[in-house]
Amino acid sequence: xxxxxxxxxxxxxxxxxxxxxxxxxxxxxxxxxxxxxxxxxxxxxxxxxxxxxxxxxxxxxxxxxxxxxxxxxxxxxxxxxxxxxxxxxxxxxxxxxxxxxxxxxxxxxxxxxxxxxxxxxxxxxxxxxxxxxxxxxxxxxxxxxxxxxxxxxxxxxxxxxxxxxxxxxxxxxxxxxxxxxxxxxxxxxxxxxxxxxxxxxxxxxxxxxxxxxxxxxxxxxxxxxxxxxxxxxxxxxxxxxxxxxxxxxxxxxxxxxxxxxxxxxxxxxxxxxxxxxxxxxxxxxxxxxxxxxxxxxxxxxxxxxxxxxxxxxxxxxxxxxxxx
Length: 324
Prior knowledge:
With 324 residues, the protein is an alpha/beta fold.
């Protein structure tokens, strides 16, 4: 029997921890070393520390990060060293029939994971949890002081990118509110869409799951039906499609929204994002200058080496003359 990997593709503060914690209570293995709970996530993150560090490194190879609003898919072509990821997945999950990986960076790194999991012969199934983007932006603002505009842009970008990458796989979209308020229905939806029978395990562990998914787990409650008038049109248009997310009929609509996103980005170019871009450009300029200095140093060393060799040759000639 082939192993099954459930990839959780969702945004920071978007309900990924609640979903993955629930999967863990349904006996889905998450690995040996999980990120510890803290004041920002008192129930736990359910994120594998080993993979988190590798994912950070992979993104750093392309000068990116989880909150990169200028991420481009083609940049992944510059990531060459993936043996560490392959080795880590094999080591962590070698004896697990079914396991899950959750990290908000997966929305950017999915093609890398696809390559590795395919090479290991592991089946991929995908859950895409989503939460009201205003709640996500508010939460990011409180935790990381990320401006609301940037938080909204990140949510849209992560969602549409994850949707694109997950096409062709057994997948299911899960609304965070329904995971908490309609848990049984949500578990049934996951079981049906991914062809995984979690219903019996849910009944067995219902008490623990209900306790884990207590209402206090959700903060910044804002109804998806009562969005602010200041909510960008692209966010509203995307959420208007949510009742059909699982119908597999929205490919054209998703493509249109993703194409529109690039024109909408200008709306979100506030001071924070401009600073990010300026820092990136400054870093690139600095690296270019350092490269020039390095090349000049190499040229100087080559010239010095030539002078040294000529000096050695002259000394050899002098030595021959003296010996005569």
